[in-house]
């Protein structure tokens, strides 16, 4: 292009001036057209730059006419044009980024508004009317609008977090109240959507209408209603749990909390001066401890029940043994006889049962470091007292048996002496009696034991005593005419009798 212009210089051209002008006129026209085209390119690029810059600057009204663009015609080089084009491209990229940010903010506003139950279009229009698609104008993407959108989104997120925390508080209050008052599943289901929000964070809540003011107000109303019912229901619930605790204690014969303490708690419930949650937590802990202790006492209580039943059978057997008509042929006597046989077996097992029970109780007390109480009485003391009383009863039975046998022996001796008319014979008999029975006192004691044992087996103790007296008479008669080995024979017979009736004692 430059070389072409140089060739058109007048000093290098021939001909007249007019001819020279006519020869360069087409080139000048072409140059003017190319300049005008280059200026229009600059104007278009600069116009786009001014327009986008105005949009970014937030100018709501901008004259789109490119005639207002001033182009520096002193520099229309391609390098300058390229610089303007690069600037335009940068502004285009910035505009697109801002539009994306605006769309992102608008989408966030829509989602948050739907979750909170708000009208998103009103919120967006309040930020700037151009952001509402219904307005039909280009969106304002200025820094101010982006800042307002960001602030709006943050405000909605804070409101969302605030409502979620409120709903969490209401949900926890509902769960506590439901637990306190044993609310039915149907009543709980109405507010299940509130309880479902307890385990989620703010970022996880996105369902439309999940955090509306209506839901929060309904939950608040339900909490308020349950609070009003709590005092009356709490008293009923406390009495129910108290009965549960007493039932556990009664079943295991454990100590029951004092009535005065329970009455004081009821008074506090009536006045509302007590934390119901702590109260129920406390009584639940007592119930848990009572169940655990009842479980630890189970094996001991089973043996205690067996011991009590055995004692009842022991008392019945004592009364039965004192009944003089127990061997009559009356109706039902055979059943009593069979029961007596079973009772003797049970009674014979009592000592071993008591020993085992005492060992288990001592082990329990050492492990727990406390006294095992049975209906507020130490169980070991009860068992020791029973052993002592049983020993005393046995000793008393032995004394009564001895007295009975001795009285029978005296009666038989008197009958024997009065039945002999001869004086010499009476003397001889008295001498024989003094020699025979005087040396047989150990034998009499053994006989008394055997008689009593036989008596428990259904034989007449009087008849048995008489038979042994007759044996004694025979021995006295034999002593008048002593025979060899008499002493050893009497010892063998006595041992035979004792061994025959040396079975277990019965009451």
Automatic annotation (TrEMBL):
Its main location: cytoplasm. One of its GO terms (cellular component) is microtubule. The keyword Hydrolase does not apply. Keywords: Coiled coil, Cytoplasm, Cytoskeleton, Microtubule. The keyword Cytoplasm applies. InterPro entries: MAP65_Ase1_PRC1 (IPR007145). Residues 74-101, 146-173 form a coiled coil. Residues 415-433, 496-507 have a biased composition (Polar residues). It is found in: Cytoplasm, Cytoskeleton. Residues 405-414 have a biased composition (Low complexity). It comes from the Eukaryota. Gene3D superfamilies: 1.20.58.1520. Residues 394-439, 472-507 are annotated as: Disordered. GO terms for biological process: microtubule cytoskeleton organization. Pfam families: MAP65_ASE1 (PF03999). Belongs to the MAP65/ASE1 family. This is 65-kDa microtubule-associated protein 8.
